[in-house]
Amino acid sequence: MNKFSGYRCSLCGRQYPVGEVQYTCPRDGGNLDVLLDYAAIQRAIDPNQIRASQEASLWRYLPLLPVDDPGGLQTPLRAAGWTPVFSPPLLRSESGLRSLWIKDESRNPTASFKDRASAVVVGRAAEIKADIVVTASTGNAGAALAGMAAAVGQKAVIFAPKTAPPAKVAQLLVFGAKVLLVDGNYDQAFDLSLQAANEFGWYCRNTGYNPFTLEGKKTAAFEIWETVISNRSFDRPLAIFVSVGDGNIISGLHKGFKDLQAL
């Protein structure tokens, strides 16, 4: 089933076919949303098939992702996602809330939700036969890419500021990534990573730049729907609170719920 049908700019709304663009809108620089063929997905997949899946990772939602299965069985690549949800009674009582759930994303292989994005980006890199995946990071995004790439033998290059925590840099090196320390801040590392991607043809994973990062993070919305929403009735809207850096995780969750609504 060919699920991936193109892109749409989040600013101007212009649509692009697969292959014409890769990262951002060439007209206004807007972030691109990945477009799925919802009709084809609806014909091929029943929601109960997903609910019955024994896959305990984000890859249980493969029918709703714009990438093919990247393989990597019994590796951390297949351990990203499907994190537990807790409903702590004491915290719920202290907060004065009738219902409260906490989704523990620290259970991901490199201990952050950024594993979701990196797993899907690595899957996309395999499809387009990218030799090297590059990103800029102060720690977590780089660790996620390095870990997911190592799981399937994908080469990864990380641009990191010299001020990045040594323990974070060590984690990148342990996973086998090539680390380039930048005498500057994160923004300068980001710009250098884009320049390297353009000049050397590397595939860029940068958050807020590569639209496939949202496709990984949207799987958290699918999990919230499956574990919290679908088997309960609510008399008011469910509120989701999420910590953010550049906002990619909020955009990803929003994309996941948009996909579910469209389906």
Q: Strand order across the biggest sheet?
A: 8-7-6-9
CATH class of the domain at 114-210, anyone?
Alpha Beta
Q: Any guess at the CATH architecture of the domain at 114-210?
A: 3-Layer(aba) Sandwich
| Backbone structural class | alpha/beta
Mean pLDDT: 93
In whole angstroms, the N-to-C terminal distance is 16 Å
- Kindly identify the CATH topology of the domain at 114-210: Rossmann fold
Tally of DSSP β-strands: 9
How many helical elements?
Answer: 10
> What value does the Rg take, in angstroms?
18 Å
Which strand-content bin applies to the residues?
Answer: 5-15%
The biggest beta sheet is recorded as:
4 strands, parallel
- Helices and strands, in order, run as EEEHHEHEHEHEHEHEHHH
Poorly predicted ranges:
none
Describe the structure.
It is built from ten helices and nine strands. With 263 residues, the chain is α/β, with parallel strands linked by helices. It has a domain at 114-210: Rossmann fold. A hairpin with a 5-residue loop joins strand 1 and strand 2. The protein is globular, with a radius of gyration of 18 Å.
Secondary-structure blueprint:
Blueprint: E1 4-9, E2 15-16, E3 32-36, H1 38-44, H2 47-51, E4 85-86, H3 89-95, E5 102-103, H4 114-127, E6 132-136, H5 140-151, E7 155-161, H6 166-174, E8 178-182, H7 186-200, E9 203-204, H8 212-217, H9 219-229, H10 248-262
Parallel strand pairs: 6-7, 6-9, 7-8
Antiparallel strand pairs: 1-2, 1-3, 4-5
Helix pairs in contact: 4-5, 5-6, 9-10
